[in-house]
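General statements about sequence and structure are easier to judge against a single worked case. No coordinates are needed to read the tokens, only the vocabulary itself. The sequence in question and its structure tokens are set out directly beneath this paragraph.
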Amino acid sequence: MERLQKSPFPRGNTADILNYLEELILIQSKEEGYFPISEEYGGYQDLEISADVAVVLQVPEKAVSAVLILEVDSKCKMPHRAVRFKENKTSPTAISGFALGDHDVYSIIGKHNLENFRVIGVESDCIHIARIQYYETNQFKFKQS
């Protein structure tokens, strides 16, 4: 008899599963969810990424997560593996770290991971742009009786 997997998510789609679990945690902790931080408070940034030095995020004080979208330099020969990143506070290199390519989207969850995030390009003479939106949480305020 074959065992069936009963799951509302397609197999292998861990991003959807993690988002679902994250929402459950937010509901349990009485939080409404994530809200974008205004540009006025550093909530949106365009960061240039090259192969010269690893870039550190400029994390706003209230940020708890971010979405990063990578736009690859048109003269780059490897648009599918344009940058590498790490979230453990060590600098990635051209051959070490997780790869992102043109128009890849990556979510960074947690203040610790935001502060420890490092990214670097893998090809010299290519300048990429990371477009980053930071998010904060807004907890319910309970009325005191």
Summary: Strands lie at 31-36, 44-49, 55-56, 65-71, 83-86, 98-100, 105-109, 118-121, 128-139.
